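User: Hey, my collaborator sent me this sequence without any context and asked if I could get a structure. I don't really work with proteins. Can you help?
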Amino acid sequence: MKSACEVTPDPVFVDVMAVVDLPPGAQRVQCIGLSRVLLCHPMGQRIFAVIDSCPHALQPLNGGAMNGSSITCPKHGARFDLEHGQPLNGVCKKALQTLAVRIRGERIEVCLPVTP
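Assistant: No problem. I've predicted the 3D structure and written it out in structure-token form, which is a compact way to encode the shape of the chain:
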């Protein structure tokens, strides 16, 4: 599944936080507009951003275990690929909504989906 920024000709990125505020192994929830965005920095991986809602039962993913580039929902055990959002076990069939991330200087920026 492509993020909104991959299919939008002029994507809009929003400054979210300083890179130093999301060290390897950390997660942080940021409210951006009406969206709860979960930023994840798994050990040995790049920074990822997803909408903080498990598509299985709409529970927060914040606090879920990260393993490589995947996250496991702390409520029901659904596991997702943080890069593409694809489910990785049989608990959930729906993909997680991922967001494009870029680093500008020492800041993390996230591209939010455009809502009509």
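In plain terms: DSSP finds one helix and ten strands in the chain. You can pass these tokens on to your collaborator as they are.
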